[in-house]
């Protein structure tokens, strides 16, 4: 029986989509029998009407979009990526998420990957890793290796 790895993510500008697509290719290169599925919750256009119960272990990816500020004492309110949180909450999907991987822009200092840390705290799963913007090939290789060890 082949292994499965559902990747649930949200991509607004294409950076996260680019990363998970390259990650899927790397995972299939390292383990050809692995069935990797990608679901961008942004594409579930009707929102909760299109949400589904995952029912098996998966990993979540999300970028950081926050309202201004410094991410410490202000500017730590999530914007734009809320549909992923709604999807995780739907039918307790978060219970099957074995971790989140965040992305962001290091120029934003304390806000870098803050949304992933907020999801970790909110839903009780770990932040597995982080990468900047579209991520480097080294990021893809590192995260692929780590995910293969976890499934």
UniProtKB/TrEMBL annotation:
InterPro entries: Flavoprotein-like_sf (IPR029039), RNR_NrdI (IPR004465). SUPFAM superfamilies: Flavoproteins (SSF52218). Gene3D superfamilies: 3.40.50.360. Coiled coil: none annotated. NCBIfam families: PRK02551.1. GO terms for molecular function: FMN binding. Signal peptide: none annotated. This is Putative nrdI protein.
